[in-house]
Design brief:
Elements lengths: L1 E2 L6 E5 L26 H11 L18 E5 L7 H13 L5 E5 L7 H13 L4 E5 L10 H15 L3 E4 L1 H10 L7 H14 L10 H4 L27 E3 L5 E2 L14 H7 L1 E2 L4 H20 L12 H15 L9 H4 L2
Parallel strand pairs: 2-3, 2-7, 3-4, 4-5, 5-6
Antiparallel strand pairs: 1-9, 7-8
Helix pairs in contact: 1-2, 3-4, 9-10
Length: about 350
Amino acid sequence: MKVKIPELISAGLILSYRCTAECRHCMYACTPKWEDRWISQKDLEEILSRLAGKIKPSPWGKDAVSLNYGLHFTGGEPFLNFELLVKAQEIAEELGIPSTFVETNCYWCRDDNVTREKLKLLKNKGLKGILISVNPFYTEYIPFERTERCIRISKEIFGENVMVYQVEYYHQFKKLRIKGRISLKDYIKIVGKRGLTEKVELFLMGRAAYRLKELYPLWPAENFFEEPCIPSFLRSWHNHFDNYGNFVPGYCGGISLGNWHKLDSLIEEGIDVGRHPVLKFLIKEDMKGLFQFAKEKGYRKKEEGYLSKCHLCLDIRKYLVSKENLEELAPSEFYEYL
């Protein structure tokens, strides 16, 4: 049995999972511990060629940016390999891919000159905008002054095409006069647990399922059995394509819908869920089916409970990876670095 994948309208290209930080909330388990492996130029040319013609521009035009339109370069931290990032943008521009932007944690913004020079170069190569990450998990690693510098200079160069995610934290940090780095423990002492999580979007998936458990109530596995994973699992926007050849659905790190080297046939023909049991259960039977499948293989539910359906799904997948080789659970390193 095959299941169709929606036609793409936007995408993120993971140049590498390697990062300067190991943030507690990271959906893709990025860390400096990942191997220093980046997408090759050959693969870069191939995936961008496959995406060209599929990617839709921002509703405000091809020279504008939007989170769920266009193409973004991400990681990991893409500025760790600036030369590759520039090459990726050059190829995207040649192929006419609209609404391109880059995500960054700003670790590299050590002074105004370097920051301005790199952003100007990317703008001259056709990059339309930038997404700057701001939250208490990054500030454990990145001095806030570098974030402020990146925002200020990005606005000079990209104008309105600067997205700050999340801007609520940025304003909070300014109000608190945060300087340098601050541990999450010290930050919570200042604002309290509610100050960390209220009015701010935070996905309880990926590493957050294990590193932020003390901040949220836990629920029995059965509470999530009837919650669907569609359309967040199969959708047309903000999917990712990584340097290992995986088509990663949405924010679901560690899951592969297939090999993007076969992207056209994958979209045209669909996923053969008969060959991929985890995908079958997530698409057709939600959490209950996946839980029963894992239980038959020895999985035992956590008596203390789970933060979310994503936590339950991830914990099951982490167990399955340790027991057998399932193509759809990739890259396997993801599960090592949670």
